[in-house]
Amino acid sequence: MAQNKKVQLVASGDLRLSANQNCWAAQQDMEKRLTAAVAAAGYEVERAHSYKADEKHGFIASQREGIEVFKKIDPTAPLIVAEAVWQYSHHVLAGLTTHRGPILTVANWSGQWPGLVGMLNLNGSLTKAEVEHSTLWSEDFTDDYFKGKLRDWLTTGKCTHDLKHAKPIDQVKLDPAAAELGKELAAQLVREKAIMGVFDEGCMGMFNAIVPDHLLHRTGVFKERLSQSALYYETLQTSDGEADAVRKWMEDRGMKFHTGPKHETDLTDKQILLQCKMYIAAVRIADDFGCDLIGIQYQQGLKDLLPASDLVEGTLNNSDRPPVRSRDGKRVLFEGQPVVHFNEVDECAGLDALLTNRVQKARQQPVETTLHDIRWGDRDQSGTVKDYVWVFLISGAAPPAHFTGGWAGADGWRQPAMYFPSGGSTLRGVSKPGEIVWSRIFIERDAICMDCGRGHVVELPSEETERRWRATTPQWPIMHGVLHGVSRDALMAKHKSNHIQVVYSNDAKAADFTLHAKAAMARELGIKVNFCGVG
Q1: Which of 22, 126, 166, 288 would bridge 530 by S-S if both were Cys, CB 3.0 to 4.6 A apart?
Q2: How many CB atoms sit inside 10 A of residue 8's CB?
Q3: Computed over its alpha carbons, how large is the radius of gyration of the chain?
Q4: pLDDT tens digit sequence for 352-399
């Protein structure tokens, strides 16, 4: 490491000024604790960019700004990327790709904004870009695990973690029937092919979420590049009557919208009306192009034109959803099935969702699948569950089939104003207890890879659920997840994304089978598969 014992520090932030301003206090607190930990190890932190008094935060807030910052950093210096917030990885990716010194990504163990999600996205992006790096996380930066690994990095330029929970599929004895099903489904996909409708790529700087075409084509999946301007136009062509019918359908099944009169702070009837129109528009465009799945970016551009797409996204992923007819009224589109949707246009999650859907359908298991953020985790403070319980929290919507009570267990709250100026309803609920298969597709060394495993969802007392919601974002749907054979630190060390894909099965035996079948299908498609914690 550097002879002068100095370490450079950068902090990537959001593209939205309101988010950077609101989250700056948490970043300051995190950097203070991290700086003290580095000092205790005998090194000094130098912040590579200053606080911006006019903007009231100290984040790198654009790709251009990040490039300018890295021009002034010694490319051989040890460098920490410190994150207490959601961040846009492309703000710093350009500079990190040519940085030759040791790189360490660090997050605070908090569900607040959250740094864990931001760091995991950056780790996945760096992995895809083939940028060597180490990673660490801590609740207060004083625990022995963190201090020991930090010392390793400071002295050697690297720190590593135990990854024995993950093993290649070739070391796992697959269920023969599951392996055969996976092989058949893979052959069918390559033969018949599928279309992934992409409403603009690159949501929120998630470089890791874009699957290169030359890799995707080998799986039999091809992108239909759609424009969000087309979605906006089609939304405006949809009648109020059709949209009102969608809302009535939801409310008749028990969903409750928490509305108010003020657009800037409340969920309004007009916002919901536009979301229902967008839902109809999305289904019709998916049908127009013969898409097998679609992904809406929403955030940039569309956020200035329409309310959030989350109510749309969660509804699309549900089999039981408001019917949408073709423009001439002669057909019900995608009747009785989801219009598979990958949130935040995460194409890795989209490919995963497609494989999941095919396997689940073939076994007559629940087909509703969604991604969640790996938002945070904690021990159950009520003492109900002894296992470590993750907070899987998607940023706005999950399919109601996942909720306790289904549609009757769903409610809609206005999206937080600092992220969503145009508002819009979330599709919120508490995920029901049950057996799940989890997975994540990612890109490493110019290859599609997949980590997968088993888990279950636990039911926690309402007070504990509320505590977890208050520590994160209470407007968003929550899943109390327990992963089998994968510890907190093992998941953080290995996972290459802020997102995790989940799907329910009817029982543990069915979940074990579908896990093996999906893994086998992925392998047949040329995907490098790791079983994590099971097998």
Answers
A1: 166
A2: 23
A3: 22
A4: 999 999 999 999 999 999 999 999 999 999 999 999 999 999 999 999
Residue 214: what are its φ and ψ, rounded to 5°?
-65, -25
* 3-class secondary-structure state, position 181: helix
Question: How much of the chain exceeds pLDDT 70, in percent?
Answer: 99
User: Nearest-CA neighbor of 108 among 143, 133, 124, 84?
Assistant: 84
Q: Residue 78 above 80 pLDDT? A: yes
| 433: preceding bond cis by omega (within 30 degrees) | no
Overall average pLDDT of the 423-438 stretch:
98
CATH topology of domain 6-156: Rossmann fold (3.40.50)
Pick left, alpha or beta for residue 202 (phi over 0 → left; psi -120 to 50 → alpha; otherwise beta): left
Q: Which residue has the tokens 């579908």?
A: 514
Can you tell me the distance from the alpha carbon of 15 to that of 5, in angstroms, rounded to the nearest whole number? 32
Distance from C-alpha of 47 to C-alpha of 68, rounded to nearest angstrom: 14
Task: Tell me which residue of 504, 190, 497 sits closest to 356, measured CA to CA.
Answer: 504
CATH of 171-532 given 3.20.14.10, 3.30.450.40, 3.90.850.10, 3.30.930.10: 3.20.14.10
**Eight-state DSSP code of residue 341:** B
pLDDT digits (tens, 9 = 90+) for 82-135: 999 999 999 999 999 999 999 999 999 999 999 999 999 999 999 999 999 999
Tokens 């995707």, located at residue: 216
**Can 6-156 and 171-532 be said to share one CATH topology?**
no
Between the CA of residue 271 and those of 152, 225, 262, 287, what are the distances in Å?
Answer: 52, 27, 11, 25
Q: Are 91 and 12 in contact (CB under 8 A)?
A: yes
Q: If 0-12 CB within 10 Å is exposed, 13-18 middle and 19+ buried, where does residue 17 land? A: middle
C-alpha torsion angle, residues 434, 437, 441, 442 (rounded to 10): 70
Q: Where are the domains of the chain?
A: 6-156, 171-532
